[in-house]
Amino acid sequence: MPRLTLELDLNRVEGDVTFQVEIEDGHVVEARCAGTAYRGFEQIMIGRAPYDALVITPRICGICSTAHLYAAVLALENTWGITPPANAVHIRNASLMAESIQSDLRQTFLFFTPDFCHERYVASSVRDAVVEAFAPFRGWMHRETLRYSRRIIEIVALLAGQWPHSSHMVPGGVTAKATIRHIVDSQSLVTEVTRWVEQRILGSGLDGWLALTDGDALEAWLAAYPATALALLDQAARFAGLHNMGFGASHLLAFGAFPLPEPGMGRNHWLAPGIQPGNDAVLPLDPARINEHIRYSWFRPYPGGKHPFDGETVPDYQPASDRYSWAKAPRYGSEVMQTGPLADLVIDGDPLIVDLYRQHRDSAWLRQLARLRRMTYLLRFLRQTLDRLATRLNEPHIIPVSPATKHDGRGAGLLTATRGALGHWVSIRDGVFDRYQVITPTSWNASPRDSAGVPGHWEQSLIGIPLADPDDPLEIGHVIRSHDPCLVCTVHFLEPGGGIRNRIQLGV
Predict the structure, then answer these.
(1) Which of 491, 457, 473 is nearest to 28 (CA)?
(2) Is 226 exposed, middle or buried (0-12, 13-18, 19+ CB in 10 A)?
(3) Residue 375 lies in a domain
(4) Concatenated DSSP letters for 410-464?
C-alpha cells in the first residue's frame, strides 16, 4: 500500500501546533510536530526593567499564568540572592496548587474523556454510562467539572486578588498577607471540592485512594466503585487500547514543585525534582545540562545546543527549508525528555504510579491516570499548606528589597507547572533584561528534531500507533491529548497527490 500523509490539528486543546504523520499498513511510521505560531515573549522582555516580568510573563498562558509568575519571581530572587519568608512561600504554593487542580480537572473531563463518546466505541460494555458522564455539556461529569473547577480557582482570587494573570508575587514575598478570612474561605473550598472528588471521581476517601501501592490494589479499588468517573475513564481507556499505545521518550524530567520553607520537614519540596533515565534510579537534577537546539526550528541558526543562559530566540522563518516548527528542541544533555504528571509522580516515588510505570511504561492510559492521581495529591498538599499558613498569620509576608540588592546578574526560576517542567532564565545588564529565555513543559514534550535528527517526545509517542480509520485518526487524538497539549481547533488531512481536506473536529 502507498504511504499516506496526514496533516492534522486537534480540537479541545490549547495553542497552535500541527502534526504531520506518515501512515503505512495502517500504522504511524513517522511523525513531525510543528509549532505554527511565533509569539516572541523572550524578545518582548529584552530591554525591559526586571519588575516588568511580573506583569508580562503571566500573559504567556491563560491557563497556567500563576506558574509563569512564580517562575519569573524565582528567577529574579535567584539573581539577587533573596529568600522570601515562609508565609509568602505558602501563599505562592497554595495559589499554584489551586491553579493546577482546576487545570487537571478540566483537561481530564472537558478535553480528554469526550473522545470516549465516539460512535466507534458503541460496543463497549460501559458505553451508555460513559456518554451519560462525559458527553460535552450534557454529561454529569462534564457539567460538574465546570462547576467545581471554578470553585477551586476561587482560592487564587482570595490569595492573589484575581485570576488569571495575577501579579501578587514579587521578589521578597507577596504583595498582601493572607487574612484569617481568606484562609478559612480557602479551607472551605478545599473541603467542598475534596468531598466532590471523593464521591464522584474516586468513590471513597482521599486517604484510602492515596494509600494504594500497586496495580492489584488499583484493580480492587476500581471494581469496588464501578460507577465513578475514575472507573468509567479506566474502562473506556482500556477498551480503546490506550494502555498499549503512546509510548515515547523513556527519560523523565521534573523540576520539583512547591518548596517547603520549614526546617526539619525531611524534604525540600512537596514534589521532588530529578530525572529518571529509562528504568534506572532517579538522579538529582543538574540544570547545567539543559540545552536547546534549533536545527529544525525557524530561528537564526547556531550549532548544537545552547544552555538557556546563552540561548537565542531570533526568528528566521524559512518555510522552503527542512525546518518545520517555531518550537525549539530542549534536551537534557543529549537526551529527549518527557515531563508532566507521570514524570512528577515517578520521580517523587509514588508507589502506585511507579508500580504501574514498570508494568505499562508511559502509555496514554497511565499518563492520564497519573494526572488524576497528582490532582488528588495536590488537594491534600493544599489543605496542609493552608493549615500551615493559618499558624503564621502574624509573620511577615514580604521582606524589603533595597535598590542595592537589584544588581546586574543572571538567575533561573525552575518549577513544576500543570503540564510539567517550566523554567525561566534571565540575565540583567545595566538594570534591564539583556536576555530572557523560557522553556515550557510543552517545549519539552512537543519539540521537533534536534541537531542530531532525533525526534521529540510527542513525535516518538505516535510511532507505531494503529489507525482503525485514517480518515478519522481518533487514536492520535487520544495519545496527544493524554499530554495535556497546546494545539488548535480544526483538523486538516493531506492526501498523497491531493489537497487538504478540512474537518471541523477530530473525535467528538
Answers:
(1) 473
(2) middle
(3) yes
(4) EEEEEEEETTEEEEEEEEEETTEEEEEEEE-HHHHHT----TT----HHHHHHTT
Q: Is residue 340 in a domain?
A: yes
What per-residue confidence (pLDDT) applies to 499?
33
Counted domains in the chain: 1
CATH number of the domain that 271 lies in? Answer: 1.10.645.10
| Radius of gyration from C-alpha coordinates of the chain | 22
Phi, psi of 433 (to 5 degrees): -70, 125
Please give the Cα distance from 135 to 397 (Å, whole number): 44
H or E, element range at 332:
strand 329-332
Provide the domain limits for residue 116. Answer: 4-503
Cα–Cα distance for residue pair 25/2, rounded to 1 Å: 9
In a domain, 508, yes or no: no
Q: Using an 8 Å Cβ cutoff, are 466 and 76 in contact?
A: no
Q: What is the mean pLDDT of each run of 10 residues along the chain (508 residues)?
A: 76 65 93 82 92 92 86 98 96 97 96 95 96 97 98 96 88 95 97 98 98 98 98 98 95 95 79 91 97 95 95 88 92 97 97 95 97 98 95 93 93 96 97 95 94 96 93 91 60 31 33
